[in-house]
Amino acid sequence: GDHPDVQERLRRDRTRIPVFVEEALRMDAPVKSQFRLAKKNTTVGDLDVPAGTTMMVCPGAVNRDPNRFDHPHEFDLDRKNVREH
Hints:
Layout: H1 4-12, H2 17-27, E1 34-37, E2 42-44, E3 47-49, E4 54-57, H3 59-62
Antiparallel strand pairs: 1-4, 2-3
């Protein structure tokens, strides 16, 4: 694999496998984009979104947002907020 250090760590501590799976999904989301309908008026970032607006959400972009994840382009088995993807 690309990360022998991660592989070795997982071999030594199999309890980290769920974290590995979550971090892998964060890094490479299986769903590249999806559509969502705003049920009520809301704000996304600096954008006001009226109820009834259809939005395209790209999990891959959200999962690499530096405002949500420290060092978002790095694979990190110690990421504290990994389940927030």
